[in-house]
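Progress against Task 2.4 (sequence-to-structure conversion) is shown through the following example record, which the project officer requested during the mid-term review.
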Amino acid sequence: MIELTPEEIRVLGCLVEKQRTTPDTYPLTINALRLACNQSTNRNPVVDYEEAVVREAAQRLGRRGWARFTSGAGSRTAKYRHVLGEAVGLADDELVVLAVLMLRGAQTPGELKGRSDRMHPFTDLAAVDDAVERLIARELVERLPRRPGQKEERYAHQLGPEGAATGARGPAAPSAGPDPAAAPDAPSSGPRPSPSPRADEHDLRARISHLEGEVAALRESLDALRKELGAG
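Structure tokens generated for the chain above:
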């Protein structure tokens, strides 16, 4: 069962998209990848990731074998590229459909056709349906139940949480009710529970991921320095 984080899903989708729409600037530097993730167009939800978040997500994808760290000829800047098609064994049309779902959320075949045109022009809706059905057979995409009054089928990827990207911009969700802790005279309901082991584990993983990002950044700086000294 594949379970990517929202950040990994956004980074992976951007790498696939930019490989096809801006090949002259691909592979992407961390800054270019961050800008791609934070685009306000062709993204749902819109997010505001910091560079460290993008780097850590790209590194995790690298450990999974779906992305690679690279440096082009004559370039001193570290860059990233995806290898999703080779790693998972996807045809070009399947890869593009999956990328659009990662970047835009659940969609109808018509929406998929229109939004994938710059990456892979499908001849008709039947071609989109064919690619989607192959992804469903691989358990990478799922068909969603129709909403009341909805005529077209909608599809979503199964790589991780749908539409729950951390750092998404937008209004905060309404509160389910008053917070008892906010009332100064609220009676105590008992001792507060201690942090769960799962929360501690999540915090530890976040710290480790942050440290890995720092180490990677230091390595990038060291490689650039070595190249500069060698060129001198």
